[in-house]
Amino acid sequence: MPGLAAEFERHPGIWRGAELARTVCPGIATGFAALDAELPGGGWPCAALTEILPQHEGIGELRILGPALAQLAAQGKFIAWIAPPHLPYAPALAAAGIGLGRVLIVKTAKDSDSLWAAEQALGSAACGAVLAWPRDIRFTQLRRLQLAAEGGRCLAMLFRPPQAAREPSPAALRIALATAAGGLALSILKRRGAPLSRPILLPALSAPLVVAGNSPSLGSDTHVMDSPTSTAAAAGSLSARLALA
Description:
single chain, 245 residues, 8-stranded mixed β-sheet, 3-stranded antiparallel β-sheet, 11 strands, disordered C terminus
């Protein structure tokens, strides 16, 4: 059976416990070499669910995605924001290289609508990335999103509270964010491969990507979040919006 054993060795869904998993779909570079080196596929998984668990809102959970989102937008792919708690900040998106014509904002009235919209966007093959902020989500719903991400070959990012780390999840990647030494500490709670016992330290980041507003109506309050400071900034209008629900 040596031929069968060799075939198993090459299968991307099988890996040794001491190594990172191989992937069929190469990852999307995060823009941070230290992080890419610790992720299967060398970047954010493009056909699997990723959960970001920030210590608190605005710690940098969006800025770490900036380079990847800019790359996808440059390829002409849409970036869908499903019921974001705050309004994306148009000038910062443009400065980060994320074309506003590629940004779709989905406003919903309830969690079930948000989850439906996220699943549809993931499976549409029209989006390069889908960002969602579920407030209440069950394992079966997470599983549906994981399957939709696999089918759409899409970057699927869920932002969840830190206590969600205690709950089971089918997500391929789970990352907790905390501040450390004036920068950002990323702890990989789950990945396809050997566990990582130490956090990855990134320097302090700039360029806020959203401004705070009233959710879900996305009001016009203008204090900056996702930034080390709380300097006031005016929210520019986005050139593209899409309502799926």
